[in-house]
């Protein structure tokens, strides 16, 4: 039941990869306490884009797999698209498809449209603003492929939302759900500073944050995270599960270091109350550009992450 909070830092409706931005990210209601679970997606847009772009090798693998599973879809819906990085990858992967990016945050959809225009997809790219799953009722027609990347776990009643997603599929259409995977790793277990096992302790705090975030959602319903069973309960036929790896080995390039720095900064801010003084000090050193032990300078920084995709088909 690992939620990849680290790698995607985002629990969420998407940056194309699902905006799983995890703890401590711009709380909409301005609570200054680091464990707020509201997320200001507009403020995070540049970070969401950079992160989705960094993870593009993983998404290309997933889309290549989907292309083998889904015959020439006419309409693809990215439910929880964020700024549209992945929506545009769908347009690239499926040149015969119209792609609709759906998100609750209009400025992120503006970014998605601009990206589609820059990449030459404007003539077959649309957006739809509103809250999931209700906004899907406004689709012009049922989807042949509906992609939900870490958007589902932001909805209180996940079972009901999956049923709503299923109802917006054309007969024979596919729902592809990205949930779970493994927490990202950026650093060796023993860093040479502080107590070994820092990232494992952060994972445990993030799991607690995620549980709180889920509990605070309107209409929250506890649900065993057996995605194939939930897809089947929604009236679909589960057809496949595959995990995809992002492997950016050390030494990291500047873009990878920037992502690791941003991720650890958010964790330092968002989990401060749960961290020990020693772990806070370790994170402070890791984030200090002047410290040779920091992620800005050390040679052993990497990114290793796994995301899992579940597919299911609406019976014809």
Overview of the molecule:
With 316 residues, the protein is of the alpha/beta class. Helices cover 36% and strands 20% of the residues. Strands 3-2-1-4-5-7-6 form a 7-stranded mixed β-sheet, with helices on both faces. Helix 5 (106-118) links the parallel strand 2 (98-103) and strand 3.
Continuous helix count: 10
- Assign the structural class, choosing from mainly alpha, mainly beta, alpha/beta, alpha+beta, or little secondary structure: alpha/beta
**Main sheet: which strands, in order across?**
3-2-1-4-5-7-6
Specify the helix fraction band: 25-40%
Beta fraction: 15-25%
Radius of gyration: 19 Å
**Shape verdict:** globular
Poorly predicted ranges: 1-19, 24-37
The rounded distance between the terminal residues' Cα atoms is 32 Å
For the largest beta-sheet, the strand count, sense and barrel status come to: 7 strands, mixed
The helix/strand series, from N terminus to C terminus, equals HHHEHEHEEHEHHEHHE
Q: Could you name the key traits of this structure?
A:
316 residues, alpha/beta, 10 helices, disordered N terminus
Structure summarized in a few sentences:
With 316 residues, this protein is of the alpha/beta class. The protein has helices spanning 5-8, 45-54, 56-69, 85-93, 106-118, 158-167, 198-216, 227-233, 254-270, 277-286, and strands at 75-79, 98-103, 125-129, 143-149, 169-185, 237-248, 303-313.
């Amino acid at each position: 039941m690992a939620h990849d909070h680290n790698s995607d830092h985002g629990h969420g409706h998407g940056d194309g990869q699902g905006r799983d931005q995890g703890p401590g990210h711009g709380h909409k209601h301005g609570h200054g306490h680091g464990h707020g679970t509201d997320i200001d997606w507009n403020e995070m847009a540049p970070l969401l884009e950079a992160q989705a772009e960094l993870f593009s090798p993983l998404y290309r693998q997933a889309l290549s797999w989907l292309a083998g599973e889904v015959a020439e879809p006419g309409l693809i819906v990215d439910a929880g698209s964020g700024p549209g990085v992945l929506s545009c990858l769908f347009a690239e992967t499926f040149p015969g498809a119209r792609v609709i990016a759906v998100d609750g945050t209009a400025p992120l959809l503006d970014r998605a449209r601009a990206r589609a225009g820059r990449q030459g997809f404007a003539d077959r790219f649309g957006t739809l603003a509103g809250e999931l799953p209700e906004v899907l009722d406004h689709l012009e027609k049922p989807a042949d492929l509906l992609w939900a990347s870490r958007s589902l776990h932001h909805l209180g009643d996940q079972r009901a939302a999956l049923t709503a997603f299923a109802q917006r599929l054309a007969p024979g259409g596919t729902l592809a759900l990205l949930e779970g995977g493994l927490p990202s790793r950026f650093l060796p277990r023993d860093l040479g500073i502080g107590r070994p096992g820092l990232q494992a302790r952060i994972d445990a705090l993030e799991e607690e944050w995620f549980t709180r975030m889920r509990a605070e959602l309107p209409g929250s319903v506890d649900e065993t995270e057996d995605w194939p069973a939930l897809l089947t309960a929604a009236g679909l036929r589960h057809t496949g599960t595959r995990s995809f790896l992002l492997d950016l080995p050390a030494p990291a390039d500047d873009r990878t270091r920037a992502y690791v720095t941003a991720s650890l900064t958010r964790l330092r801010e968002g989990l401060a109350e749960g961290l020990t003084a020693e772990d806070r000090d370790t994170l402070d050193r890791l984030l200090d550009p002047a410290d040779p032990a920091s992620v800005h300078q050390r040679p052993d920084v990497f990114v290793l992450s796994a995301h899992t995709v579940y597919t299911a088909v609406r019976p014809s």
